[in-house]
Amino acid sequence: NDHTCSRTRRITAHYNMASASALAGAFTSLGVSANRAAAGKTNVVAKKAFSARSAVRSVKRDLTISNVATGPKGPISKGESMSEEDKIVADQGGGKGYTSVDPNTRRIIPDAKGRVVVKVTYVVLEPQYQSALSAAVNQLNTNNDKVCFEVSGYLLEELRDVKNLAMLKKDVEESNIFIGSLIFIEELAEKVVEIVTPLRDNLDACLIFPSMPAVMRLNKLGTFSMAQLGQSKSAIASFMKKKKESGGFEEGMLKLVRTLPKVLKYLPSDKAADARNFMNSLQYWLGGSTDNLENFLLMISKAYVPALKDMDMVIAEPELFPDTGIWHPTAPAMYEDLKEYLNWYDTRKDITFAKNAPVVGLVLQRSHLVTGDEGHYSGMVMELEARGAKVVPIFAGGLDFSMPVERFFFDPITKGPYVDTVLSLTGFALVGGPARQDHPKAIDSLKKLNVPYMCTVPLSFQTTEEWTDSSLGLHPVQVALQVALPELDGALEPVIFSGRDSKTGKSHTLEGRASQIASRALKWANLRKKKNVDKKLAITVFSFPPDKGNVGTAAYLNVFGSIFRVLQGLKKEGYNVGDMPEDEGELINSVLNDKEAKFASPDLNIEHKMSVKEYEKLCLYQEDLHENWGPPPGNLNSDGANLLIYGKKFGNVFIGVQPTFGYEGDPMRLLFSKSASPHHGFAAYYTYIEHVFGADAVLHFGTHGSLEFMPGKQVGMSDNCFPDHLIGSTPNIYYYAANNPSEATIAKRRSYANTISYLTPPAENAGLYKGLKELKELIASYQGLKDSGRGASIVNSIVTTAITCNLDKDIPIVSTNAEVDAKNMDNDTRDLIVGKVYGKLMEIESRLLPCGLHVVGCPPSAEEAVATLVNIAGIDREDEGIIALPQILAAAIGKDIETIYRANDAGELKQVQLLQDITVASRLMVNEFVSKASDPSGRLAAGALGALGGMFGNASVALPWGDALQGTMFENKVDVVASRKLFEYLRFCLEQIVKDNELGALTEALNGEYVLPGPGGDPIRNPKVLPTGKNIHALDPQAIPTSAAIASAKVVVDRLIERQRSENDGKYPESIALVLWGTDNIKTYGESLAQVMLMVGVVPEPDALGRVNKLRLIDLEELGRPRIDVVVNCSGVFRDLFVNQMNLLDRAVKLAAEQDEPYEMNYVRKHAVEQAEELGLSIREAATRIFSNASGSYSSNVNLAVENSSWNDESQLQDMYLNRKSFAFNSDSPGSGMETKTAIFKSALSKVDVTFQNLDSSEISLTDVSHYFDSDPTKLVASQRKDGKMPASFIADTTTANAQVRSLSETVRLDSRTKLLNPKWYEGMLASGYEGTREIQKRLNNTLGWSATSGQVDNWVYEDANDVYMKDPEMQKRLMETNPNSFRKMVANFLEANGRGYWETSDENIERLRNLYMEVEDKIEGVEK
Question: 1028: which of 46, 384, 591, 759 fits an S-S bond (Cβ 3.0–4.6 Å)?
Fold first, then answer.
């Protein structure tokens, strides 16, 4: 599950804003430190000049700004001069990128009046220099009688428009001086280099401040040049080589500039003068004030423009400003000491504060202050102070704010935190910005301070109007830089706080947003001030689908059991929990009132009846809901006169039931392409929490609710976005499954949640049961007796039993022909049949499945941890130098595990047995190890773990795995050093599990403290997800796919194509339809993303700063096969988190489509040419292949329709998919967001041969969640194909080291055998009572969903499930007693499967089900009466 704007061009961009600023910061400190002696005298003056009252001058002189471009008006010709990739990168789309500001608004043309005219062209990343430079030029043009300046300015992002690029080239051709700063976006840096390099020799001066290495080499001041850096003849290079440390070009560059003053004495005088001029230029530039920029232009012009060489000019030295300090808009000066600042602040006459006023620490960027672009900062200060808060606004010249945080945010007397909340207004990571973050350092500083940390975002790449009009919201590259990266520091609440003027480029406060930020910051601060006994907490549970049996829905979580533990914890902490229930069962009953009641009835406990008058008074946005729902109260959560708030209060704790979307049961609404607004009942619920109950915080309990998926901008919401309206000013704490970082990230960004991770239930091996167990015994008999006369008869028994277990569907070699007899087979054929059956059995037996449901704050037992640790041990970890246990064991007997895997897949009986021996040995070793780590009760014990430490030392110390290998083929043969290293890692993983902080983190958040951040994902792939109880974050979106992910992706793509060819007469699939998920790509670091690119024969590559935003076309010879076409359906969550990767994907497909290659070797081009002709489009347009929902909408709604049985026939489901999922991303006009492209979507689907999805985690499989079938287009493809043929459907399973590509039907069978039909799984669920029964019903419902979308569910799956759950009176009774409503839904699912033709069964079974349904109905109705 995972908005558009009228702005132009921009996509892979802003990563650099910070890389830029990061280097700029380092350069700043260098600039200040280079002349420390001078700084002493200057700082006094600077402090005064730096105050807000005097920093911004009123310089409205005779400035002529031309609105007429001097460059060409039309776009650059699309002729041969531009490569295909250049066209893509240029993102030409006139007004459809991310900004449509015309660079001509910055053009200044002076009235020469006989003076020398110096033409300057500049390119900068951020706009804050625009107004300061314009003011400086204006002042010079007005006051200087010798020289005047013509200026043309560009923001880097504007160079995505080819018209602007052509205009820049013309301007540079006519310029004396070129200036570039913070040019850190690789593809745009290349454009700048391309334009400036051939013109560089004609320029009088070329000055490049911190930028990409290739751009830095353009620097030219007389004899001073950086082009020779690293070459042996350069004196500077020689000096650098003596001093250089590893750290790459940028580090070397920084070191050079820091040490330039020392270098100068080694240079000839002319070179020294030029180098000194460069140093001064940097200081002028970073000083940023109008005076500094005036003197900068004069100095460079006099020194390097020939016409000015002999003119007399008065040029002042650079004015230096403090590198760090405290600023306030009304202060007389800057402060470099907190006590000095407080002496002024606490004696102010213009305002007084309450004694216990909250204190908000603000973090500001120095560059905005020195350039006078600080209006947005002033606005935020005023907003907070108007609400009674004190402020400490600190700044830093670089982007390491940890030092000023530690220097200015701690009380100088008590040494404790002086501030109650930190509010960063920079948008950057706390340390280093986006290029070189140091998250551990940032986390150390923030943990020490231990207060909530909010990181708001200024609009840098969009004007206010562009953002307001955009359904995307914040510029995607700014999201990558200024939202995703701060999240890694534990930052909360990425709310936009300032806008940008389209003409001046200056920043201004957004009043509504600043108000929201101030309210929320003070609510967080209030949690530090208020006593626990007085705090009010609203715990919100979910009910999805809307059904009484589903109250308390959350992924793998025992919600009410967990809430009960939370209430116990709150009571200990001094909270008023009133008359608390005695146990979990009483808690369920008190909230549900009568758990058998229908959800739609008032029999849920009603905590509050909100009259329409009260609702209209308190809910200020309720009129916005009328369009979708009419006037209040409506018929949802309503008794016809009032809006009903369901839940129950216990003292100061309210446990409430969040209303659902409201349109789940309405087939017509489900067909709408865009999601409806929340209904009045939904709005009333959150209005109650904030304005009636008066919650100090809300705790959303479990994965996941509907709030964060309500319509609005994707990221960077406005005053009119529904999630922002609904959450209001209430701090949001959200328990979220550790394995779902993508949706947790949506909750963070769209509902401002502090997401606290909880563990998924411990995994166990699925094991074998009934006929499967019997089969294993038969195979053991065959291995012992195969050479005796009984061998053939045992094979016949194995075949018969396998058919009884329906394994013949998975193993084609198992014949259902009764005439086939093993007596007529040779030994190799018998072995192959037995080997194939054995391999399938072991696949089922070793499948990991989470058993039961997790209870918050309850870590697993030692025994429960074994299967998870075996799987952790099963993966090579190159970064840590750890070899996987199966490989260690294979090497012990002279084998390679990959060879064994391949032979096992082929069904070689000896190799299947060998792999089973390795698996058993692995389990024995880990089991022996873990048994030493448990206390007498069987729980993991910290003390026991400490004792484990003694196992890791020299060879004489006991082996961590004890005697586990005694008597096996591996005894005394394993590599002890490699094994000890692996088990030391397993010990670390065990320790992390024991450190569970799920309840502790909640306490910290409610105390107004900093919750440590941590990654979300699969604990097996990435044990750093543990311990749980962390503030979950995703990853840097521009870091994927990694090289390891690309390698893994290649294995899967090769196997997928090979599997399809083997089943299709050797023919390659021409087109593959596949799904991209947010969480999967976070867990695997972009494997499925890489798969798409490899299918079309393109490889993603990193730029010089490691950001993956470049593409390399694989030539056909290297590829060795045709380019396969794709149709990519991105989930709404993927769209929100990975817009830059969608851009990359679209570029990749179009790059492939535009290659002049034979159709039989390039299906992308073949289909694009056909579609171009068919639809009257260009080939590029016809090659549109990246689809998703409309911005702000999620899912195809097929899942909602299936879950609520609100669909008539399959064509209706297919229409939902087409309506909701036919929005395309276009890298040529990225600012347009997702555009409706139904015709291209249908045309592309009509050419699909294969549908494909990935499974990457043992915790979530095809029938565990509804997302997978919701995104499955199998039957839809058949309906669009001209021949009506069903496509082949495959699922890649990378949950183990031995990646598999199975058919969809194979995977559904595997899933059913290991979960729905497996006593180990369903008994584990039933042990969780009410919620466990619901989980069983959910698996059955999702199985029905797969029948509806793909038709790939075998009849026997329903038949066997009916035998397990419906035939057995004892099972009926258990289900009925634990959750009668879910049981009723199960009966209905079976009847629906039969009624829709998905399950053929006996009349007897149907009659039983009908009677059961009426019986359950009567019981529920009887209870209700």
Answer: 759
What SS3 state is found at 821? coil
Whole-angstrom distance, CA of residue 1163 vs CA of residue 1174: 16
Phi, psi of 496 (to 5 degrees): -70, 130
> Which residues share a beta bridge with 699?
539, 733
Cα–Cα distance between 58 and 36 in angstroms, integer? Answer: 31
The first and second tokens of residue 529, run together, are 């001030």
Answer whether residue 244 shows pLDDT above 80: no
In 1039-1070, which positions are buried (b, 16+ CB within 10 angstroms) versus exposed (e)?
bbbbeebbebbeebbebbbebbeeeeeeebbb
Q: How far apart are CA 628 and CA 313, in angstroms?
A: 69
| Among the listed residues 179, 164, 167, 182, the one whose alpha carbon sits nearest the alpha carbon of residue 126 | 182
Q: Which two tokens stand for residue 112?
A: 């020469």
SS3 call for 1398: coil
Identify the pLDDT of residue 1113: 95
The more confident residue out of 198 and 702 is 198
- Contact (CB, 8 A) for 523 and 696: yes
Give the pair of three-digit tokens for residue 636: 């949802």
Q: Report CA-CA distances (Å) from 2 to 10, 473, 747, 1194, 1262.
A: 22, 15, 11, 6, 17
Joined tokens for residue 930: 């873990």
Locus of tokens 């959200």: 734
Please tell me the distance from the alpha carbon of residue 352 to that of residue 349, in angstroms, as a whole number: 7
Residues sharing a CB contact under 8 Å with residue 615, sequence separation 6 or more, in sequence order: 622, 632, 633, 643, 680, 683, 684, 687
Alpha carbons 1095 and 138: distance in angstroms, whole number: 56
> Which neighbouring-strand residues pair with 1292?
1254, 1301
Q: How far apart are CA 67 and CA 784, in angstroms?
A: 91
DSSP assignment letter at 1011: P
Q: Is 115 exposed, middle or buried (0-12, 13-18, 19+ CB in 10 A)?
A: middle
Higher-scoring residue by pLDDT: 483, 56: 483
Rounded Cα gap, residues 1367 and 1381, in angstroms: 18
- Rounded CA-CA distance 1004/451 in Å is 9
C-alpha–C-alpha distance, residues 1086 and 1084, integer Å: 5
Q: For the chain, give the longest Cα–Cα distance.
A: 114
Residue 1402 to residue 1410: CA distance in whole angstroms:
13
Residue with tokens 């402020």: 391
Distance CA 1329, CA 1331 (A): 6
**Cα separation of the two ends of the chain:** 40
Given a cut of 50, whether residue 956 has pLDDT beyond it is: no
Beta-strand relationship, 1125-1130 and 1108-1113: unpaired
Query: Is the distance from CB of 518 to CB of 423 less than 8 angstroms?
Result: no
Distance between CA atoms of residues 1330 and 599, nearest Å: 15
> In terms of DSSP H, where are the helices of 619-712?
626-629, 667-670, 680-687
Q: Report how far residue 522's alpha carbon sits from residue 354's, in angstroms, rounded to the nearest whole number.
A: 14
Sign of CA dihedral 570, 571, 576, 581: positive
pLDDT at residue 1126 in the model = 96
Amino acid (one-letter) located at 1342: N
How many Å apart are CA 1060 and CA 1301, to the nearest integer?
10
How many CB atoms are located within 10 Å of the residue 414 CB?
Answer: 8
The span from the CA of 1082 to the CA of 1091, in Å, is 14
Q: pLDDT (tens digit, 9 = 90+) per residue, 1197-1227?
A: 888 888 888 888 899 999 999 999 999 988 8
How is residue 1259 written in tokens? 């915790």
Residues 6+ positions from 1151 with CB-CB distance below 8 Å: 84, 85, 88, 1096, 1098, 1111, 1113
Q: What are phi and psi of 800, to 5 degrees?
A: -60, -45
572: number of Cβ within 10 Å? 11
Given a cut of 80, whether residue 1139 has pLDDT beyond it is yes
Q: Work out the burial of residue 827: count CB atoms within 10 Å of its CB; fewer than 13 is exposed, 13-18 middle, 19 or more buried.
A: exposed
- Three-state DSSP class for 470? coil
